[in-house]
Sequence to fold (359 residues):
Amino acid sequence: MRVHNFSAGPATMPLEVLERARDEMTDWRGSGMSVMEMSHRSKEFVGIAAEAEARLRSLLQVPEDYAVLFLQGGATGQFAGIPLNLTAPGAAAAYVNTGAWSAKAIGEAKKYVDVRVIADEKDSNYASVPAEGTLEVPGDAAYLHYTLNETIGGVEFPYVPDAGEVPLVTDASSTILSRPLDVTRFGVIYAGAQKNLGPSGITVVIVRRDLLNRAREDVPGALDWSAMAQADSMLNTPPTLAWYLVGLVLEWVEQQGGLTEMGRRNQAKADLLYGAIDGSDFYSNPVEPAARSWMNVPFLVPDPALEKPFVAAAAEAGLSGLGGHRSVGGMRASIYNAMPIEGVQALVDFMTDFEKQNG
Ligand SMILES: *Cc1c(COP(=O)(O)O)cnc(C)c1O
Fold:
């Protein structure tokens, strides 16, 4: 029996994708072998890779003047990859701090660039984003980085910041493909796959091609966007199985109706869960309503001593992965594309029962 899995990442995948992968596991479409046994240079795998890229381009409407890379090292690798690819030593870059993942990106970037934190949400206890139109990007910044969705804090930008002529870089790890996004507003969009795109082990980087000539000479090959773009992301052996699975997830998103439909469903799921939280005196979510994430919903019970019993009883009821991040405690429900509204409804029903018994 499969549970409803609310884990933040690695996270739930569409059952249809898992079943398809199972059916193709030992003999991928008559090739006589599994995808993980194929040479990455074989025409079969090159086809799988190209098809995944084409589907991602089509879903997100990525223009031709952007490269789409499939890399390793996670979003964390790109925390270093961004300054190494976009700046010369001694340069400055602007960052917005909206929470834990912003802070990690900033910490890593400080090894390589003069980081200017131009907005920090500490006064709101990282429960909001800067008001639209308030960011002032220094003219000498090589780029502006922000975290589109804070997976731990449950804070999501409801707008795309205006960085003027400065390239805009965003960590979209936990929200990519959850709704339409205007790629043309960005210089770079990057995302680890294990939230909304597939399994862990592969990271998508979408980069405007005019930014591919700014790398430092000592950028490691595995993080070198330009070299990777020239080599179709196969400068070295790529994570072939993960790449294939991302392709299956992209096909599934297409079959569901693409990003407009995903956005409609995700908004309905988020409305259902936030509605239940706001409608109760027992549960609470600290995030300013306009900045609430559609993907990661942290919530609290009145007495922290009830957190462990909540998570344990939920697991008994087939609702898995509801413990908050180890750094913040509380509870968190991650409701990515692959989480059906039935799963969110089951959680809301469980929450109502738990409140009756413990409220
Ligand atoms: C999960 C996550 C990361 C870290 O991803 P890794 O693949 O573990 O490096 C970075 N940023 C955000 C927003 C995330 O959700």
Observations:
- The longest helix spans residues 258-278.
- The chain has a mean pLDDT of 97.
